[in-house]
Specification:
The complex is a heterodimer of chains A (508) and B (51). Chain A is mostly helical and 508 residues long. Chain A has a single domain, classed as Sodium/glucose cotransporter, CATH 1.20.1730. Chain A contains 21 helices and 2 strands. Chain B is an all-alpha fold and 51 residues long. The chains are: A mainly alpha (508), B mainly alpha (51). The interface between A and B is large, with 47 and 32 residues.
C-alpha cells in the first residue's frame, strides 16, 4: 500500500464533501430545464469550470500520458489542435451561438426542429450508443490508475469503482445539472491543483534535459515532428481538426454547457477561455508520459518501437507508466492531494456523461416515441423521473461493459472512433441544417447511417487505421447528406421549422 | 528537429501558464457565479409558482 494515513484522510474527506454539496443541488431543481441545463443560469467563470471539469478526467490523463510515452513531443500536436479549434469555435461562435439561441437541451433535439421527429429518434439512438460505448472504458482505465498510485490490491478494483460510480450516481440522479455544476466547481479546482503539482514534480524528478535527451535517443525526429511520425502525418492532423470541430460543437456533454449558459454571447466566451485550458489538458499529461518514459523506459522494445516501462523488475504496459511514476515520486500528503484531484476529475466527467447520455435516452428516444404513439406529453416532474431511471440504466451498463471489455490499441483512438459513430453524421447534419437550405430528412438519414457505418465497420470489423476510419465516416456522412438531400423532397419552409420549435419548447 | 523542440517548448510554457492563470481566476471568481446561479434558480421557481 502506497497510501499513508494523511492521504486517506484527504481522499475520504474530499469524497464526503463532494457528495454533500452534490446533494445540496436537489433543492434548486424545480423543472426539467433546471435538471438538464441548470435553468440556463451559468455565468462565465462557473461555465468555464464545469466545461473544463466535464472534459478533463482521469481517463484524459491516462490516454494523454500513454501518448506522451509512445510518441514523445510529437503527440503535442493532437493537444494543440483540440485547444486551438476550441478557441476558434469560441471566437467565431461557429454552430454554438445558433445552438444556444434555439434554447435546446440536447443535440438531437435540433434534428426534430430542422429535419423530422423520426430522425431525432435515430440520432438519439446513435448518440446514446456511441456515447455510452465511449464512456464504457472509463471505469477500467480509471481503476487502473487508482490501484497503481494508491497501491490498493487489484482484487478490490471492482468494489472501489462501484463505490465511486454510486457516489456520482446519487448526486447526479438527485440534482441533475445543478448538482453536477456545483461539484464540478470543487472538482475543477482540485484537479487543476493536482495537474499543476504533478507537472512540477514530474519535470523536477525526470529533469528537462533528460526528458529531451530520452525522446531524441529513443525516437529521433519522429519524437518531435508530427509530420514525420508514422502514427501522425498530414492525414491524422486533418482528421483531428475535423474531429475536434465536431466534438466542440456536437458532443452532448459539451453542448449541454453551451445550452446552460445565460446567453449565446456568453457561450462564446466560455468556449474561448476553456480552449486555453484544453491546451494544457492535453499537453501537461503528455509531458508526464514523456517523464515516465525517461524514468521507467528501460525494458525490452515493444511493438511501437519504444522500450516498455519497468518497475521493480516488473514490465508494465505504456499506459500504466505514468501512474507508476507518480507512485514513486509523490510523497505522503501530496499523493493524497493528487489522488483526490484525480478522483475529482473522474467524478466530474462521469457524472456529466451520465447526465448527458441519459438526457438523450429520455428526451430524444423515449419522449419522442411516446409522442409518435399519440400519448400525451409528460409533465416536468415525470420527465425528470424518466431521466433518473435512464441514469440508473446507463450506470448499470457501464459497470458491466467497463469491467469486461478491453479496447484494442491506444485508448485515445478507441475514444475517437466510438465518438465518431454519431459525431460524423451529427456534425454534417448540423452544419447542413444551419448553413444549407437544401438539407432535408432524406439527406439526414443517409448522413447518420453512413457516418455510423463508416466508423463501425472499418474499425471493429475491417481493422483499418483510425485515420482512414475517421475520414471514411466523415466522408460518407457528407456524401450521404448531399446526395440524399438532392434526391429527397425539398425541405419544409422556415415557417414549418418555427412551428416545430414551438411545439418542442411547449412540451419542455 | 531543433526548431520543433523549440516550438514545443514555447508552446508548452504558454499552455501551462494559461492553465495555471485561468485556474486562479476561475477559483476566485467562480464562487460568486455559483451564488448568482442559485439566486437565478430560486427566482425562476418563484415565478413559475406565481403563474
Amino acid at each position: 500500500m502506497n497510501f499513508a494515513m494523511v492521504d486517506w484522510v484527504i481522499v475520504i474527506g474530499y469524497l464526503a464533501v463532494s457528495l454533500g454539496i452534490g446533494i445540496l443541488g436537489k433543492r434548486y431543481v424545480g423543472n426539467v430545464s433546471h435538471f438538464l441545463v441548470a435553468g440556463r443560469e451559468l455565468g462565465l467563470y462557473i461555465g468555464i469550470a464545469t466545461l473544463a471539469a466535464t472534459e478533463i478526467g482521469t481517463i484524459t490523463y491516462m490516454y494523454n500520458g500513454e501518448w506522451g510515452y509512445k510518441y514523445g513531443f510529437a503527440s503535442f500536436a493532437a493537444a494543440a489542435i483540440s485547444g486551438l479549434v476550441m478557441i476558434f469555435v469560441g471566437r467565431t461562435g461557429f454552430v454554438i451561438s445558433r445552438f444556444r439561441a434555439l434554447k435546446l437541451m440536447t443535440v438531437p433535439e435540433y434534428f426534430e426542429l430542422k429535419y423530422s421527429r423520426s430522425l431525432r429518434i435515430l440520432t438519439g439512438f446513435l448518440v446514446a450508443l456511441g456515447g455510452i460505448l465511449n464512456m464504457g472504458v472509463f471505469l477500467k482505465i480509471e481503476g487502473e490508475f487508482l490501484t497503481i498510485v494508491s497501491g490498493i490490491n487489484v482484487r478490490y478494483l471492482v468494489a472501489v469503482m462501484t463505490v465511486i460510480l454510486l457516489l456520482e450516481l446519487i448526486y447526479t440522479v438527485l440534482g441533475g445539472m445543478v448538482s453536477v455544476v456545483i461539484t464540478d466547481f470543487l472538482q475543477y479546482v482540485l484537479l487543476s491543483v493536482a495537474t499543476i503539482l504533478v507537472t512540477i514534480y514530474a519535470v523536477w524528478h525526470a529533469g528537462w534535459g533528460q526528458i529531451v535527451e530520452k525522446v531524441t535517443v529513443t525516437m529521433g525526429e519522429s519524437g518531435f515532428n508530427p509530420l514525420v511520425n508514422p502514427k501522425f502525418g498530414v492525414t491524422f492532423l486533418v482528421w483531428q481538426v475535423l474531429l475536434w470541430f465536431s466534438v466542440h460543437t456536437c458532443w452532448q456533454t459539451t453542448a449541454m454547457r453551451v445550452f446552460s449558459t445565460k446567453s449565446p454571447e456568453l457561450s462564446k466566451r466560455v468556449m474561448t477561455w476553456t480552449g486555453f485550458i484544453f491546451l494544457g489538458r492535453g499537453m501537461l499529461p503528455m509531458l508526464w508520459g514523456i517523464a515516465a518514459l525517461t524514468m521507467l523506459g528501460t525494458g525490452v522494445v515493444g511493438t511501437d518501437g519504444i522500450p516498455l516501462p519497468v518497475v521493480s523488475g516488473r514490465t508494465l504496459q505504456p499506459i500504466d507508466a505514468m501512474p507508476a511514476m507518480l507512485a514513486q515520486i509523490l510523497g505522503p500528503g501530496v499523493r493524497g492531494v493528487v489522488v483526490a484531484g484525480m478522483l475529482a476529475a473522474t467524478m466530474s466527467v462521469n457524472s456529466s456523461y451520465l447526465l448527458g447520455w441519459s438526457a438523450v435516452i429520455s428526451q430524444d428516444i423515449i419522449l419522442p416515441i411516446r409522442r409518435s404513439l399519440g400519448k400525451p406529453p409528460l409533465d416536468s416532474k415525470k420527465q425528470i423521473l424518466v431521466n433518473r431511471v435512464a441514469n440508473l440504466f446507463v450506470s448499470l451498463f457501464l459497470m458491466f461493459w467497463g469491467l469486461y471489455y478491453t479496447p484494442p490499441g491506444a485508448v485515445y483512438l478507441y475514444l475517437n472512433i466510438t465518438g465518431t459513430i454519431f459525431l460524423a453524421g451529427a456534425f454534417v447534419c448540423v452544419i447542413g441544417g444551419l448553413y444549407w437550405r437544401r438539407a432535408n430528412s432524406t439527406g439526414g438519414y443517409a448522413a447518420m447511417l453512413l457516418g455510423a457505418a463508416g466508423a463501425i465497420i472499418p474499425y471493429f470489423f475491417l481493422h483499418w487505421s483510425e485515420n482512414i476510419t475517421g475520414f471514411a465516416a466523415f466522408g460518407l456522412a457528407a456524401c450521404g447528406l448531399v446526395v440524399g438531400s438532392l434526391l429527397g423532397r425539398r425541405p419544409a419552409p422556415v415557417v414549418e421549422e418555427a412551428k416545430n420549435l414551438k411545439q418542442i419548447v411547449r412540451e419542455d | 528537429m531543433e526548431s520543433w523542440r523549440l516550438f514545443w517548448t514555447i508552446f508548452l510554457v504558454v499552455s501551462g501558464a494559461s492553465f495555471a492563470f485561468i485556474t486562479v481566476v476561475v477559483t476566485v471568481k467562480g464562487f460568486r457565479d455559483l451564488l448568482d446561479m442559485f439566486s437565478g434558480l430560486i427566482e425562476q421557481q418563484e415565478e413559475s409558482r406565481k403563474h
